[in-house]
Amino acid sequence: MDIELNKPFIYDLTLEQIQDWTKEQGEPAFRAGQIFDWVYVKRVGSFEDMSNLPKPLRDKLLASFRFITLTEIAKFESKDGTMKFLFGLHDDHAIETVIMKHSYGNSVCVTTQVGCRVGCTFCASTLGGLKRSLTAGEIIAQVVQAQRILDPHNERVSSIVIMGIGEPFENYEATMQFLRTMIHPKGLNIGARHITVSTSGIVPNMLKFADENTQINLAISIHAPNDALRSKLMPVNRRFPFVDVMNACKYYIEKTGRRITFEYALIGGVNDRPEHAEELANVLQGMLCHVNLIPVNYVPERNYVRTPRDDIFEFQRILQKNNVNVTIRREQGHDIAAACGQLRAKHMEKTTG
């Protein structure tokens, strides 16, 4: 194996770990802050660029660590300004990252795993299964890369959604380290309330997340109002049944006092009928929550169809009638294979076909 591949990524280190490393090297304590600043504020791509560090220290950094290089395999830009990237990793795997333009700023959607084992039947991310989890640094690198793309326009990443390929709570420790680095005041300094992590309902780590004492938002992919239908759409429901997921949600709300978001993908003729809306309203009655209705993206391999426009509004109306906060997600990047995992699936076809 290439010796370079045995070196950890500099992005994988917290400020505290960099402080420990500089101390071990006999360097003054302030050097760690300088290194962290070069990585996250100045966003350099090599140790040689860290010009206020002595040459021997730069040489030590080069010998000990490596930068993550995300190779741009493909880039698509939508009419609405959404940019979707397929990035190659050092081991020839590929991941997706999306920059979305909003009136309130730029949001980045990051990937936490190469593939996914959760198996949602309407999602392209699960095609081919799970290859591996990303390190914290590989998740961080996506946001740094997005910020570099925005830098020439004097714009910044103002919010993050962890809703790309993979299940963040099946890569929990790396995801939490990523989050801590994102909100660090000496790093990218993104407000915790401007970050949302989405899970399909990995109950033990939902409970753990509730105990983290963080202001980061939590979203749950629910997609059905009952156990039987959810198991058909989301095989993960057989591991963590609907009732357990809902109890974990209630624990989170009780522990944090924060509102939870339920993501509900509407699939034509499957989970979008008025009776489904009534049942969902009954389940969520009295909970501090918000429902985000998502007209499902067409994925050829999955053969699901979009819910007709009038039926989407009727579903929304029924929830509102039952005093459930609900919005319909504004579609972005619909013209550039916006569904999670579609670019990667096409890339896999080309490289393996």
TrEMBL record:
Residues annotated to bind S-adenosyl-L-methionine: 166-167, 198, 221-223, 297
UniProt EC number: 2.1.1.192
PANTHER family, A to Z: 23S RRNA METHYLTRANSFERASE, RADICAL SAM CORE DOMAIN-CONTAINING PROTEIN
Purpose: Specifically methylates position 2 of adenine 2503 in 23S rRNA and position 2 of adenine 37 in tRNAs.
Record-linked NCBIfam families: rRNA_mod_RlmN
BP-aspect Gene Ontology terms: rRNA base methylation; tRNA methylation
Miscellaneous comment in the UniProt entry for this protein: Reaction proceeds by a ping-pong mechanism involving intermediate methylation of a conserved cysteine residue.
Molecular-function GO terms, alphabetical: 4 iron, 4 sulfur cluster binding; metal ion binding; rRNA (adenine(2503)-C2-)-methyltransferase activity; rRNA binding; tRNA (adenine(37)-C2)-methyltransferase activity; tRNA binding
Cofactor(s) recorded in Swiss-Prot or TrEMBL: [4Fe-4S] cluster
PROSITE patterns: RADICAL_SAM
Source taxon at top rank: Bacteria
Residues that coordinate or bind [4Fe-4S] cluster: 116, 120, 123
Enzyme's top EC category: transferase
Species of provenance: Cohnella abietis
Bound cofactor: record note: Binds 1 [4Fe-4S] cluster. The cluster is coordinated with 3 cysteines and an exchangeable S-adenosyl-L-methionine.
CDD domains, alphabetized: Radical_SAM
Compartment(s): Cytoplasm
Family to which the UniProt record says this protein belongs: Belongs to the radical SAM superfamily. RlmN family.
Assigned GO CC terms: cytoplasm
UniProt KW Iron-sulfur keyword: yes
Alphabetized UniProt keyword annotations: 4Fe-4S, Cytoplasm, Disulfide bond, Iron, Iron-sulfur, Metal-binding, Methyltransferase, rRNA processing, S-adenosyl-L-methionine, Transferase, tRNA processing
Keyword Chloroplast found: no
Entries under InterPro entries matching the protein: Aldolase_TIM, Methyltransferase_A, RlmN_N, RNA_MTrfase_RlmN, rRNA_lsu_MTrfase_RlmN/Cfr, rSAM, rSAM_sf
Full protein name: Probable dual-specificity RNA methyltransferase RlmN
Active site (catalytic residues): 96, 340
Catalytic reaction annotation: adenosine(2503) in 23S rRNA + 2 reduced [2Fe-2S]-[ferredoxin] + 2 S-adenosyl-L-methionine = 2-methyladenosine(2503) in 23S rRNA + 5'-deoxyadenosine + L-methionine + 2 oxidized [2Fe-2S]-[ferredoxin] + S-adenosyl-L-homocysteine; adenosine(37) in tRNA + 2 reduced [2Fe-2S]-[ferredoxin] + 2 S-adenosyl-L-methionine = 2-methyladenosine(37) in tRNA + 5'-deoxyadenosine + L-methionine + 2 oxidized [2Fe-2S]-[ferredoxin] + S-adenosyl-L-homocysteine
Gene3D superfamilies, alphabetized: 1.10.150.530, Aldolase class I
